[in-house]
Amino acid sequence: MKTGKRYRNAATTAKVEEGKVQNLPDAIERLKATATAKFDETIEVAMRLGVDPRHAEQLVRGSIVLPHGTGKKVRVLVLTKGDKEREAREAGADHVGSDEWIKKLNEGWLDVDSIIATPDMMGEVGKLGRVLGPRGLMPNPRSGTVTFDVAKAVRDVKGGKIEYRVDKAGNLHAPVGKASFGKEQLLANVETLLREVVRTRPPAAKGQYIRSVTLSSTMGPPVRLDPATVQAAFKA
User: Fold this and answer.
1) Inter-axis angle of helices 24-34 and 183-199, to 10 degrees?
2) Does the keyword field hold RNA-binding (predicted)?
């Protein structure tokens, strides 16, 4: 694959070799050394899992709160009524309401990163599946975004909660912070994600569960981890 000059220079500077397997602390050091863009690059974890998501019992999905957040300012809409509106606003929600916001969403407004809804709103929110589903914005009880405890849900999302889910090929991608984060902050975030993915291994998954683990920054070269070591380190 042809790569740009900046990418090649970064890889050379950090001595990142194609196919090289690193331990996690070294991988993070190398990622920070190669994240030389003029903006604060996002650090992402990509994993290939030994599952077949076509079977519901092998679907890997969930949500976790990263201890140091993602470094991204998250815009939150809470769809609710009555006293829950006040709770949502006090917790820091950017937008709060019911019918007026459902109308805006139907009209194509999507200037938001996360949507939380109380269960009594799901009759109307469910009709927005074709709009919200493809964009990953549909509230879901499993991810904690359908709840009457809107204050906690807002604080979790604002504080660094992320959702993860394997795609149809068994791949999983998740942001774990910014290049400006300290090494220990990134290490804690990555470990939290890896531990959760290992913990939620479906019982129906056979053979090697973690096939590959790669860390990368937005513009820098990827660094691969030893999947067997990752699985052993975080196995309960």
Assistant:
1) 130
2) yes
Q: Is 66 in contact with 162 (CB distance < 8 Å)?
A: yes
Strand partners, 186: none
**Strand pairing of 171-178 and 61-65?**
unpaired
User: pLDDT tier at 21 (50, 70, 90 boundaries)?
Assistant: confident
Q: What is the CATH number of the domain that holds 121?
A: 3.40.50.790
| Mean pLDDT (the chain, rounded) | 89
State the residue range of the domain holding 135. Answer: 76-158
Count: domains in the chain: 2
Judge if 173 and 140 occupy the same domain.
no
Runs of H (alpha helix) within the chain: 5-13, 24-34, 83-91, 99-106, 122-125, 129-132, 150-158, 183-199, 227-234
- Of 158, 185, 205, which residue constitutes the final position of a domain? 158
Tokens of 192: 């939290």
Cα–Cα dist 151/131, whole Å: 25
pLDDT band at 196 (very low <50, low <70, confident <90, very high): very high
Separation of alpha carbons 133 and 152, rounded Å: 23
Question: Counting every residue, how long is the chain?
Answer: 236
Using an 8 Å Cβ cutoff, are 201 and 208 in contact?
A: no
Alpha carbons 219 and 10: distance in angstroms, whole number: 10
Does residue 119 contact residue 148 with C-beta atoms inside 8 Å? yes
